[in-house]
Amino acid sequence: MALIAVFFVMVNAQQLPPNRGDLTVAEFAQNYNYYNKLLNLGNSYLDKNGEWAEKAPSAGSYTIELGYIEKPEFSFTTENGYVTGLSFVVEIENNDRWLIPYDKYIVPASLAFSGAQRGMGLFSKAPMRIAKRIKDNIFQGFRFTDAGIAFACDVEYSGYIDTMTFLMIPEENATETYFSLNFSMNILK
Q: 50, 53, 86, 118: which has the fewest C-beta neighbours closer than 10 Å?
């Protein structure tokens, strides 16, 4: 019975990022990279400045992208050297490929930020709630608060068919396509 309890605690401990409390950009990046690896979301990672870098794929491994996605450029809001918010905007015009959702960037960023907040404990259900709300509404957009953070995502598109699954497909006769996603999260004051 004690072994089951230890296992349960260990599994829940994985939901917490390595850095807690107020985060510098470098600490946010470490948290982001932790979740990116935990969720197995690819070889991209954030350097200490919050900018994208690439790891070489492991020998014998391959990454297959089913559609098109641009890496977002994170913009950090800081006060006294600590991150109080993060945002990014993506705009894609006249793309003839399938679009895959941005949850592969939004979920680890949201968990990296929210998991560091005071009050997030070992048995908090907030990480699962946050991830589910994002994944369930990724192409429709969302607005909600959780763990002391306001999350917002506005999505606009034309010339695409929302398959209600994991991609958007260009309409067969679309002469133009447009996709815009504006994501932000900010600590509530």
A: 118
DSSP string, the chain: -HHHHHHHHHHHHTTS-S--SS--HHHHHHHHHHHHHHTT--SEEE-TTS-EEEPPPPTT-----SSB-PPP--EEEEETTEEEEEEEEEEEES--SPBPPTHHHHHHHHHHHHTTSTT--TT-SHHHHHHHHHHHTTTT-EEEEETTEEEEEEEEEESEEE-SSS-EEE-TT-S--EEEEEEEEEE--
Question: Which residues constitute the domain of residue 172?
Answer: 2-187
Q: Could you tell me if 127 and 110 are in contact, meaning their C-beta atoms sit under 8 angstroms apart?
A: no
Number of domains in the chain: 1
- Give the C-alpha separation, 71 to 52, whole Å: 8
What is the tens place of the pLDDT at every residue in 149-185?
A: 999 999 999 999 987 777 899 999 989 999 999 999 9
**Which region holds residue 8: left if phi is over 0, alpha if psi is between -120 and 50, else beta?**
alpha
| Distances, alpha carbon 68 to alpha carbons 17, 88, 178, in Å | 29, 17, 13
pLDDT in tens, 7-59: 333 344 456 899 999 999 999 999 999 999 999 888 889 999 999 998 766 66
